[in-house]
Amino acid sequence: MDRGVKEKVISSIVEQKFLEEQKKITSSIEWINFLKAHNNLYKVILKKGFALNPKFNAVHWAFDVARLCNEITFSYCWMNSHAKFYKEHIGPGSQPAHVDFHVSYFADNCITRIDSCRDKLALMVWAYYCPFNPENRDEVLDYVKVMERLKYPLKFGLKLKGQDDFLNNLENLRGVDFIRVEKYRHFKIHRREPRIEIYGPEQHHDWPYMLPLIDKSDIARWDEELKERYPDPNHRERVGKRCYFEGVLFDRRKIRDRLWGYEEVEKHIESCLGKLLKASEGCFRILRRRLPFRSAKGVFNKKLWSKNRQGGRP
Fold this sequence. Notes:
Elements: H1 3-26, H2 29-48, H3 57-89, H4 101-129, H5 143-151, H6 164-170, H7 176-190, E1 195-197, E2 209-213, H8 216-229, H9 233-241, E3 244-245, E4 248-253, E5 259-261, H10 262-289, H11 302-311
């Protein structure tokens, strides 16, 4: 088969799988409720426009959240589609490693956007109470810092009302799934590229890395491992000398948490996406029912704004 024809056939099969995955998500109760809440908020803004009230800043963040939820869903469907196609055509153990570009690419998209979406949903709520300046990096808080201010406003010199309803939704964006996603994103940005093994990590996957040992505890651990591996003290001494470079001891081992199993990644993404859809829906509904969104005639309290803005800075 001609290469171009083959690629078109593959693309067609994967696209069909994508449509099936998309249908599954868009027919779920989480997606239906999320879409309804977003559309209702959008209709309010279309009808009333953006009134001269800083609380309307929250709507901008709400629309960003909705866009991110769409992008996560889009990437999640493509990730699953390519993973299913891979498993149907390449069996476990048939290759030295099972890393697929498309699966990794869309998984990275999902994970980076999940972390961003959680922060932006928290900022939507924060913008309702404190009209911060998004051009000033010090005023743009993350999820954890927003939660601290909403839960303990007096600690930050704030006077807030009615934040518990928002908090109940935002509290659901915690747990092991978000912790793992946050860790993956940290590795993606600051460490070596995380690799997703479609059939899970194996002992023979990845290459060892030369790590300098500086701390006494690390050197002691390395020494104990060497004793277990080489019981003969003379042979152990010869091996140990070869591990020093310019007076520094190095340990040759694989980097922890560089390899991720696809099933684990998929599970975390699916769980986080469902929770984000549900939390966003809840926060959108609360926002739409609050003043000034129930009425276009909001009152701008300059004194409260000034106090909240000062307390909002980390």
